[in-house]
Amino acid sequence: MGILGYGYKALKEGIKTIKSVKPGTNLGGKTVSQVKMDASIAKIKSDSFEIKQRVTKAMKKMKDHKSK
User: Fold this and answer.
1) What secondary structure does DSSP assign to 5-53, as a single string?
2) What secondary structure letter does DSSP report for 4?
3) Is-contact 6 51, C-beta < 8 A?
4) C-alpha to C-alpha distance for 51 and 3, rounded to whole angstroms
């Protein structure tokens, strides 16, 4: 799966996160839409970090393989 595949996966996971907040829960003074927005932003940031880590690891492997 390429980098675009991971981006698509992150988008689908973000949608799942958005649907997971129930309107009747205690939100600590925030509206439901604010909580959904915060959850989707956090999910996108974590997936972005994961993609960066995978690219860094792949680049390191390529560099090690090229030097041999």
Assistant:
1) HHHHHHHHHHHHHHHT--TTS--TT--HHHHHHHHHHHHHHHHHHHHHH
2) H
3) yes
4) 7
Using CA atoms, how far apart are residues 31 and 23, in angstroms rounded to an integer? 9
Nearest to 44 by CA among 6, 5, 25: 6
CB 43 within 8 A of CB 10: yes
CA 32 – CA 27 distance, rounded (Å): 7
Which of 34, 8, 6, 3 is closest to 21 using CA atoms? 34
- Which residues, other chains included, contact 25 with Cβ-Cβ below 8 Å and sequence gap of 6+? none
Residues of the chain predicted below pLDDT 50: 1
Closest CA to 8 of 53, 51, 56: 51
Amino acid at 22: K
- pTM exceeds 0.85: no
